[in-house]
């Protein structure tokens, strides 16, 4: 079978490089003159699917370690060394000038033959997002991302919960996803999978999103140890504990971020530009960390975790002063009345930025 190219790539990269770095750069697809008419109204599209030839590839392995060390079959990877030598990438179309298309997101080197172009259509190219399927298994997409080790996409989704990207939400995603994958678990939020976090920092949000264990479904346990660590365990206690190797060393590679962290976060100072810059740096660091091997970031050990019983269902009580319903065990007996903690003006425990503290 012979396939004729319809154009070539003009790129700053003369040889293969890190795909993520290549996709950050703009490049140009130059279509052959005889195919220019086929570009009519292509500029109406924001994104294109590009099929091209890995023309520098001359061999392949059906099963081998891939970019991050995991062994996969060639058809279960995005390796450029393939039996067909065909690559596909979705790119952003920035501008059309005649038969020249300025694009961003293409991981192909200068001179790469282009085999085909077509518009990206979410309704056809995106996996079916049927509402009924979501109702049946709300974590289906998250479980797929964990199985396929697509931590970058998982981090992007965790950012929806956390509100921004930062190094520690990235670490939480890495730890939670790794533990579920290694234990062969899926979380349905019914306490069959339990996560024990030892900090209430950004790390915990990454763990909650990746594992599906939260305070609301009683599958998240908080131990106020002040350590960037998590244990993910089955109900029988079989689990994995991950602890960040060295917090200081982790960020020492990013001195500007450390300086801005002290200024903006620790001292609540800095300009608008400082705040914008630290968010940019946190974003960059988060996505750099998500690509690193887990054993570079964490100490990992198999454990037999001590877990409490399933969450009990308490009888309700009513405060004799405000009339609001409360959990029975939380009622305070005072002056022959059952009161809520606030009406009784009693001491209570509060989880906030300081950790678990007693409030008088």
From TrEMBL:
Organism per entry: Acetohalobium arabaticum (strain ATCC 49924 / DSM 5501 / Z-7288)
Keywords: Metal-binding, S-adenosyl-L-methionine, Zinc, Zinc-finger
Coiled-coil ranges per UniProt: none
Gene Ontology molecular function terms on file: zinc ion binding
Superkingdom, taxonomy of origin: Bacteria
Domain TsaA-like residue range list: 3-129
SUPFAM superfamilies, per the entry: FwdE-like, YaeB-like
Region of interest (Disordered), ranges: 1-26
Key word S-adenosyl-L-methionine present: yes
Bias-annotated ranges (Basic and acidic residues): 11-26
Pfam families the UniProt entry points to: FmdE, TrmO_N, zf-dskA_traR
Family statement: Belongs to the tRNA methyltransferase O family.
Key word RNA-binding present: no
Name of the protein this chain belongs to: Formylmethanofuran dehydrogenase subunit E region
């Amino acid at each position: 079978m012979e396939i004729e190219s319809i154009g070539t790539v003009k790129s700053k990269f003369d040889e293969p490089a890190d795909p993520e770095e290549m996709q950050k750069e703009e490049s140009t697809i130059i279509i052959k003159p005889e195919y220019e008419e086929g570009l009519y109204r292509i500029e109406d599209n924001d994104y294109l699917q590009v099929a091209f030839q890995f023309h520098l590839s001359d061999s392949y392995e059906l099963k081998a370690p891939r970019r991050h060390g995991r062994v996969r079959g060639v058809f279960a990877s995005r390796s450029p060394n393939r039996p067909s030598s065909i690559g596909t990438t979705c790119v952003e179309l920035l501008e059309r000038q005649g038969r020249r298309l300025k694009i961003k997101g293409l991981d192909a080197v200068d001179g790469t033959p282009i085999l085909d172009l077509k518009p990206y259509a979410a309704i056809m190219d995106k996996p079916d997002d049927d509402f009924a399927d979501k109702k049946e298994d709300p974590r289906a997409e998250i479980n797929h991302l964990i199985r396929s080790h697509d931590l970058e996409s998982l981090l992007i989704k965790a950012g929806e919960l956390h509100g921004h990207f930062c190094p520690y939400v990235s670490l939480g995603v890495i730890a939670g996803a790794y533990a579920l994958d290694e234990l062969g678990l899926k979380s349905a939020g019914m306490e069959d999978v339990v996560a024990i976090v030892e900090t209430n920092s950004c790390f915990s949000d990454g763990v909650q999103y990746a594992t599906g264990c939260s305070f609301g479904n009683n599958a998240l346990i908080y131990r106020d140890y002040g350590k960037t660590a998590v244990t993910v365990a089955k109900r029988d206690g079989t689990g994995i504990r991950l602890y960040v190797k060295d917090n200081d060393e982790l960020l020492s590679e990013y001195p500007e971020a450390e300086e801005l962290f002290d200024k903006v976060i620790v001292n609540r100072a800095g300009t608008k530009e400082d705040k914008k810059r630290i968010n940019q740096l946190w974003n960059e660091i988060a996505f750099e960390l998500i690509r690193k091997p887990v054993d570079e970031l964490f100490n990992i050990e198999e454990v037999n975790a001590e877990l409490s019983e399933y969450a009990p269902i308490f009888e309700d009580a009513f405060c004799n002063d405000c009339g609001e319903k409360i959990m029975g065990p939380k009622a305070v007996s005072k002056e022959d009345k059952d009161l809520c903690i606030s009406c009784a003006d009693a001491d209570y425990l509060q989880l906030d930025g300081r950790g678990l503290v007693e409030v008088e």
